[in-house]
């Protein structure tokens, strides 16, 4: 298939591109990118490119089956988004989500690569599960799936999982996400051992003894609603520990779902000291506060919990000043029945793939990030952290993972219409400005 | 324009006559008591008690009865009737109760009042006194003592205003406005 | 009339609605003083007590209140029901509604359960206690008792003593009494009073002698034996010595102070028998008033047809 994307605002931080231009894709790879700042070439219509008569105007829908021209005037063309924190639930929890429905939701949301967390059933702590995931993704996945393996066997936090064999089978990082590795010695060993394979350890930072089965942020809202609270310190204590261990071992630490002001400050200080730590946050932490839990809405129940407005502002500042490198979704789909129950018993999680881009673009509209910085947070930086250099870029020769975004188009969030099986979102009914209109990956093109 | 059916003097004369009738029919005030239905009936019952005292020189017990809890139309009303106090500080068993209300219309309030009284005890008898009987009975209820009989249309309302409620003593006939 | 179909908490009630409930309860208290303690008002309606936590006194109080209104009552206790067989909460509640319940009185150990049912059921939901959130009818009967004894609530100094952090009774009382204009004080060890509570416009004391000065009403909370050994206080004995109410401590309060307790009491721990049975105590009247208040709540929720 050959695709020509014309006149779009091309943003590719990996090449320092931020100008109007064209992109030509052939056989699933980026063949050429041309922007106005580069030396003048003969106009495309006069056949300046090899391989075909491009003067044939095929229009938006295209009458020629294997050659599409997309007029991206007024639209933004960027490398496909990479979500390095997603729960695809397969194997074992297919009633919540499958690789097929999860990747379909990803593509809808503008993501061309997702990394799936290992808290499946069985836990992804050995190479045969890696192989299963990779095979299923090849068979049914709409976008690229890169698996994240468990740090410890069964995610129990006691024995290291076989990282080497899993890396060989295709794992690109390790995490016990859903749980922390509470035992500091095990975490230290995990960080040291990971250096062999040069993979990041992604840490879910939470002192579960301090959390003590809390379900919301500890503060005025938890007292008012009579719900058990999780103090901010629960996250901060573990971040402090993990940064110290990263310093001790020299390993690559990536901190998942940062939610508090104190956490941002700890990471900022560590980076200033030169520690090799990276961090991510999720759209709900810069879009909502603990107030969202009023009325006991289980769709706002998430771990770490939604915090105060002060924390929310600190997260935005952390994104702005570079302390937080990545925006990931922590996409956590659950069955409707599971969320339709007592707040204490409902599982935590927000189905986030289909709202992430719209929510993140608000940061651009608010002036917290430039569009280029947003693309870095959602595409380039994840690629760099995971060392997947043929992604997060529009460089000629790389795999064609491209998303075209209409940053002005308004969309009303309708959970019932999600491609994901998970309809659990606190953003239902929100009007978001900006969405992916075309996603290209795995040799296919998806439009909406 | 509401029409005035009775003025202050008319009301007073009616109450005086009714007081005499009650005493005459009951051959005195022995075992007699008055119970007024909230709110208009309560004021009238108290007035009747002083009239009777002026005539017979005897005190007669007065109670007030709230019938909201016994209404038969709770299922179809849109708003809760306000619950007022029921104060009958005496044993009703074996007493002759003069039940007092301001306007007798369908008879349903009286039915509710009788149910309420029965829950308080077993009176010897219940005699109904009303200031106005406006007809249109929906239940077989009849007043024993009546201030004035006034034929009315269903589209009309009879309103008794009393000075205990801060108005002038009078009885008005009003037309029901559409949508009220 | 109440604006919603449910009573989920005092938080959700306006001051006017609280006063309406208290005034209505006064009318119902009259009924309870008669020989025939029954009115036909809610005849034909069905009330279901759906109790996921054991409770004889509250459940019996609601049952009596319903029966006094001529309502049919069903008691649905968890151990004897299908919830043990794995049925979800929503399914249990929908089944109860399908059996014809107009009123569902729910007690559950998880906060927010009445709210969940309210959103998903047509029936009127009355919160009889949800986790550590609220116990609204308790606060209403407490307010009714105070008003009856003191003539008013506004301007009174009212102290609540005990495990505030885990007490839904304390929370509902705080909301109710502050809405009615009282000055509320909390007395207890710092481990049992969450620091955020001061945002609810209450004064916090840690010593009884300080907190009881000038108090008109004293509400003693039950200390739960299960809290022992969790680090909140060293021992029940120590708790009792520091925060139990004794005649000597009570002398710090106003001479006409009234002493209240939601029950059941731990005699000798948070309250001495002398005080529980003494002239300041209104504890038994709270029980009687509880029925009148619950009748008022049921009447105001189910008494007229809701479209």
Mind describing the biggest β-sheet of chain A? 8 strands, mixed
Average pLDDT confidence of chain A is 93
Query: What count of domains describes the coordinates of chain A?
Result: 2
Strand content of chain A: 15-25%
What's the level 1 CATH class of chain B? Alpha Beta
The rough form of chain B would be described as globular
In the residues of chain B, how many domains can be counted?
A: 1
Gyration radius of chain B, rounded: 16 Å
**Helix share bin of chain A:** 25-40%
CATH topology of the largest domain in chain A: TIM Barrel
Which structural class best describes the helix and strand composition of chain A?
alpha/beta
Descriptive overview:
The complex is a heterotrimer of chains A (448), B (180) and C (307). Chain A has 13 helices and 18 strands. Helix content of chain A is 29%, strand content 23%. Chain A has helices at 99-108, 127-140, 163-169, 184-194, 208-211, 220-225, 232-249, 261-272, 283-287, 309-320, 336-339, 356-366, 371-385, and strands at residues 2-12, 17-26, 29-35, 67-71, 76-79, 81-86, 111-116, 144-149, 173-175, 201-203, 216-217, 229-230, 253-255, 277-281, 326-327, 402-412, 431-441, 444-447. By secondary structure, chain A is an alpha/beta fold. Chain B has a single domain, classed as Rossmann fold, CATH 3.40.50. Chain B is globular. Chain B is 27% helix and 28% strand. In chain C, 38% of the residues lie in helices and 15% in strands. Chain C has 2 domains: 15-135 and 287-302, Aspartate/ornithine carbamoyltransferase (Rossmann fold, 3-Layer(aba) Sandwich), CATH 3.40.50.1370; 136-283, Aspartate/ornithine carbamoyltransferase (Rossmann fold). The model of chain C has no long low-confidence stretch (mean pLDDT 92). In chain C, helix 5 (136-150) packs across helix 11 (283-302). Chain C is globular and about 55 Å long. In chain C, helix 2 (56-68) links the parallel strand 1 (46-51) and strand 2 (72-77). At the B-C interface, helix 3 of B face helix 1 of C.
């Amino acid at each position: 298939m050959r695709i020509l994307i014309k006149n779009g605002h091309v943003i590719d931080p990996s090449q320092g591109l931020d100008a109007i231009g064209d992109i030509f894709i052939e056989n699933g790879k980026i063949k050429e990118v041309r922007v106005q700042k580069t030396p003048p070439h003969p106009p495309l219509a006069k056949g300046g490119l090899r391989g075909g008569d491009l003067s044939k105007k095929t229009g938006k829908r295209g009458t020629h089956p294997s050659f599409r021209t997309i007029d991206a005037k007024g639209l933004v063309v960027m490398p496909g988004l990479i979500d390095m924190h997603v729960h695809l639930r397969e194997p074992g929890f297919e009633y919540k989500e499958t690789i097929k429905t999860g990747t379909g939701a990803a593509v809808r949301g503008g993501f061309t690569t997702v990394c799936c967390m290992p808290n499946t059933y069985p836990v992804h702590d050995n190479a045969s599960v890696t192989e299963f995931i990779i095979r299923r993704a090849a068979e049914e996945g709409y976008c690229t799936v890169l698996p994240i393996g468990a740090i410890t066997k069964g995610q129990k936090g006691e024995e290291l999982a076989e990282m080497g064999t899993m890396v060989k089978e295709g794992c690109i990082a390790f995490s016990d996400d859903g749980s922390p590795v509470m035992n500091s010695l095990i975490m230290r060993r995990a960080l040291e051992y990971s250096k062999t394979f040069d993979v990041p350890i992604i840490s879910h930072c939470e002192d579960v003894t301090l959390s003590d089965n809390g379900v919301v942020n500890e503060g005025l809202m938890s007292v008012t609603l009579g719900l058990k609270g999780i103090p901010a310190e629960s996250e901060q204590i573990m971040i402090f520990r993990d940064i110290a261990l990263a310093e001790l071992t020299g390993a690559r630490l990536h901190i998942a779902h940062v939610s508090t002001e104190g956490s941002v400050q700890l990471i900022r200080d560590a980076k200033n000291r030169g520690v090799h730590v990276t961090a991510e946050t999720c759209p709900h932490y810069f879009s909502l506060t603990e107030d969202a839990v009023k009325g006991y809405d289980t769709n706002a129940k998430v771990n770490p919990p939604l915090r105060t407005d002060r924390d929310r502002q600190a997260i935005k500042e952390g994104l702005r000043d570079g302390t937080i490198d990545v925006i990931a979704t922590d996409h956590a789909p659950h069955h409707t029945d599971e969320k339709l129950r007592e707040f204490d018993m409902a599982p935590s999680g927000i189905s986030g793939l289909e709202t992430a881009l719209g929510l993140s673009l608000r940061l651009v509209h608010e002036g917290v990030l430039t569009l280029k910085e947003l693309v870095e947070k959602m595409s380039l930086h994840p690629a760099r952290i995971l060392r997947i250099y043929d992604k997060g870029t529009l460089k000629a020769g790389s795999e064609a993972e491209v998303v075209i975004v209409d940053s002005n188009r308004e969309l009303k969030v309708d959970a019932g219409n999600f491609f994901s099986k998970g309809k659990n979102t606190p953003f239902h009914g929100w009007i978001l400005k900006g969405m992916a209109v075309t996603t290209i990956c795995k040799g296919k093109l998806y439009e909406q | 324009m509401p029409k005035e059916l009775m003025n202050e003097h008319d009301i007073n004369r009616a109450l005086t006559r009714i007081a005499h009738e009650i005493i005459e029919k009951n051959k005195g005030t022995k075992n007699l008591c008055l119970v007024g239905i909230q709110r208009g009936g309560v004021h009238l019952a108290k007035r009747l008690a002083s009239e009777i005292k002026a005539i017979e020189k005897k005190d007669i017990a007065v109670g007030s009865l709230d019938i909201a809890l016994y209404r038969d139309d709770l299922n179809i009303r849109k708003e809760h009737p306000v619950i007022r106090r029921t104060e009958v500080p005496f044993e009703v068993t074996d007493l002759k109760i003069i039940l007092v209300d301001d306007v007798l219309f369908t008879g349903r309030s009286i039915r509710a009042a009788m149910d309420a009284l029965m829950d308080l005890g077993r009176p010897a008898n219940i005699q109904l006194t009303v200031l106005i009987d406006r007809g249109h009975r929906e239940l077989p209820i009849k007043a024993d003592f009546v201030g004035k009989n006034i034929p009315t249309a269903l589209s009309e309302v009879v309103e008794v205003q009393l000075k205990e409620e801060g108005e002038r003593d009078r009885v008005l006939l009003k037309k029901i406005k559409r949508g009220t | 009339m109440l604006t919603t179909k449910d009573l989920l908490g005092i938080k959700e009630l306006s001051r006017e609605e609280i006063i309406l409930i208290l005034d209505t309860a006064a009318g119902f208290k009259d009924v309870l003083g008669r020989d025939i303690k029954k009115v036909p008002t809610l005849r034909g309606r069905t009330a279901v007590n759906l109790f996921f936590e054991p409770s004889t006194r509250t459940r019996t109080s609601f049952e009596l209140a319903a029966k006094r209104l001529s309502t049919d009552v069903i008691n649905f206790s968890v151990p004897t029901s299908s919830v043990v067989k794995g049925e979800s909460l929503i399914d249990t509640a929908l089944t109860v509604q399908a059996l014809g319940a107009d009123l569902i009185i729910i007690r559950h150990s998880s906060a927010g359960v009445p709210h969940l049912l309210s959103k998903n059921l047509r029936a009127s939901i009355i919160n009889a206690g949800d986790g550590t959130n609220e116990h609204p009818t308790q606060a209403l009967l407490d307010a009714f008792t105070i008003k009856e004894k003191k003539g008013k609530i506004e301007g009174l100094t009212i102290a609540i003593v005990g495990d505030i952090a885990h007490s839904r009774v304390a929370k509902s009382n705080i909301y109710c009494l502050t809405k009615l204009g009282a000055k509320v004080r909390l007395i207890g060890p710092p481990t049992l009073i969450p620091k955020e509570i001061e945002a609810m416009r209450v004064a916090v004391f840690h010593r009884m002698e300080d907190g009881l000065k000038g108090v008109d009403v004293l509400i003693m909370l039950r200390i739960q034996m299960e809290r022992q050994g969790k680090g909140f206080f060293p021992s029940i004995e120590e708790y009792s010595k520091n925060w139990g109410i004794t005649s000597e401590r009570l002398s710090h309060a106003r001479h006409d102070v009234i002493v209240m307790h939601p029950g059941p009491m731990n005699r000798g721990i948070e309250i001495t028998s002398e005080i529980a049975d003494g002239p300041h105590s209104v504890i038994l009247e709270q029980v009687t008033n509880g029925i009148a208040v619950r009748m008022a709540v049921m009447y105001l929720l189910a008494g007229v047809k809701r479209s």
